[in-house]
Write a structure and sequence with these properties.
Elements lengths: L18 H4 L24 H13 L3 E5 L1 H5 L3 H11 L3 E3 L14 E4 L6 H9 L2 E5 L20 E6 L2 H4 L5 E4 L2 H10 L8 H23 L8 H12 L4 E4 L4 H8 L8 E3 L8 H12 L5 E6 H6 L3 H7 L5 E6 L4 H9 L27 H4 L5 H7 L3 E5 L2 H13 L4 E6 L24 H14 L7
Parallel strand pairs: 1-2, 1-4, 2-3, 4-5, 5-6, 7-8, 7-9, 9-10, 10-12, 11-12
């Protein structure tokens, strides 16, 4: 219980018992099973450091909060909202921190980093004080250390773990996120950012919301774009629906676009882009919140990695709405490959042509004739799920409504376009490019890569 009640060390526990041990009996003392109440502490930060942090914030011209998953784990969403509204400091969200503020809160500037929104990334670039609350500053959050470019940038980190609280040579407030925010706010009475900065934040929010609406309004043909499908899904999820995803291009697009209305609405396993997690993760989410609709978004590539948990959902009568987007292969890694001059090699579900290497994205001949004919709907039906097949955005919207009213797990299979993508916004990801190549496109990508690396910053 020391680990389970530790705010720093707690986490998933796996207990493995050998089969013979499982059959044995042991005379445990009755006291071992006596009910006990364990208190989870809220560690308080050092007072002197809190005072120093408050003084640093008061001196800042362009402060920005980067809210991570620790805000949600601490139950600090209300404290963060109070802090942001009182000080007029904008709040950007990491992948795990999505939903720490409602999307329509005046201080919420959306996702930050590689998969970030325009508003958050522009503000991060020019911020002079970053207040990191419950964030690990992952590679995606910092855009490979290119997100923050102010010449005299300072960090204030609020975290319960010693390892994370000292990152980027920060002023460290090691403690519970809610308590730290409350104590910090008590020392910032009467402080708020100046009017010019507040006006800039409001303008960037307006620009970003218009961009989201633009993407949601796309009606790409002959197959819909991923962005417009996310818009339809967001509408169907409403205030209480839970979105679960893990891998491919979807987590990035969802991080950018999704307008979170609840701190427990957005569930992305993106620490390791774990293909196949989606349906299993959806089962856990539905068991934790049986009264809420759970929408599992999975790509065709991830579905092929692990679809068998559909049978478990049917067996245990755990209703899921599984949204399967079929773009004919590995959309995310294909796009990354093309950006590095490698033509999406091996990322499409196509038959190999006799005597030729495995095709990339741009090959001669009829595209449709080369596709593997994978019947995802038939596969889902064979596992016991109801299925609906769609080819248009309107059909997808209707299918979602039907699935919401169904009694059992439904898999909605929708063909969508492989190339119509949600763009990046003032961000970059450090993905190494081959230093030596016979492909001119790769050589050109290497030159651009070397140049961008000069923007990476280390805070000593």
């Amino acid at each position: 219980m020391r680990v389970l009640t530790s705010v720093a060390d707690t986490g998933t526990v796996t207990l493995c018992l050998p089969q013979d041990v499982q059959t044995e009996a042991y005379d445990f003392p009755a006291a071992f099973f006596r009910e006990r109440v364990w208190h989870v502490a809220r560690p308080r930060p050092d007072r002197h450091l809190v005072e120093s942090a408050a003084a640093l914030i008061r001196s800042a011209r362009r402060p920005l909060v980067v809210a991570g998953g620790g805000v949600i784990y601490s139950g600090a969403t209300s404290a963060l909202a109070d802090f942001a509204r009182a000080t007029k400091i904008p709040v950007a969200e990491t992948m795990a921190g999505k939903g720490t503020l409602r999307w329509d809160d005046s201080q919420c500037v959306g996702a930050v980093g590689v998969t970030g929104a325009l508003a958050a990334n522009v503000l991060a670039r020019d911020a002079d004080v970053i207040i990191g609350v419950g964030t690990r500053y992952s590679d995606f959050t910092t855009a490979s250390k290119t997100a923050f470019q102010h010449h005299d940038l300072k960090f204030i980190n609020i975290n319960v773990t010693e390892f994370d609280v000292h990152k980027h040579m920060a002023l460290p407030l090691m403690g519970d996120a809610r308590v730290c925010l409350e104590e910090l706010l008590s020392l910032l009475q009467g402080y708020e950012t100046d009017a010019a900065y507040a006006t800039e934040v409001a303008s960037l929010r307006t620009q970003w919301n218009a961009e989201v609406e633009r993407i949601y309004a796309i009606r790409h043909e002959p197959l819909p774009s991923q962005g417009e499908l996310i818009g339809v899904l967001e509408h169907a999820a409403g205030e209480t629906g839970i979105i679960v995803n893990a891998a491919g291009s979807m987590p990035g697009d969802l991080h950018k676009l999704w307008r979170a209305k609840h701190s427990k609405q957005f569930h992305m396993e993106y620490g390791y882009s774990c293909m196949g997690y989606e349906i299993a993760g959806g089962l856990g989410a539905k068991m934790a919140a049986p009264d809420r609709d759970v929408f599992v978004v999975v790509g065709d590539g991830s579905y092929l990695m692990l679809s068998s948990d559909l049978a478990t959902a049917v067996q245990e009568d755990v209703k899921l709405i599984v949204v399967l987007w079929d773009n004919g292969g590995f959309k995310s890694i294909g796009s990354l490959s093309r950006s590095l001059g490698q033509d999406g090699f091996g990322t499409r579900f196509v038959k190999r042509q006799v005597g030729l290497p495995l095709a990339g994205d741009f090959v001669a001949g009829d595209y449709d004739s080369e596709l593997l004919q994978i019947d995802f709907a038939a596969n889902a039906r064979s596992l016991g799920a109801d299925t609906i097949e769609c080819r248009t955005t309107a059909e997808f919207a209707a299918a979602l409504e039907a699935a919401k009213h169904a009694q059992h797990t439904t898999v909605i299979v929708t063909r969508n376009d492989r190339y119509e993508s949600v763009p990046g916004y003032a961000s970059w990801w450090d993905v190494a490019v081959a230093e030596v190549s016979l492909m001119p496109a790769v050589t050109a990508a290497r030159v651009a890569y070397v140049q961008k690396r000069t923007e990476e910053r280390f805070y000593f």
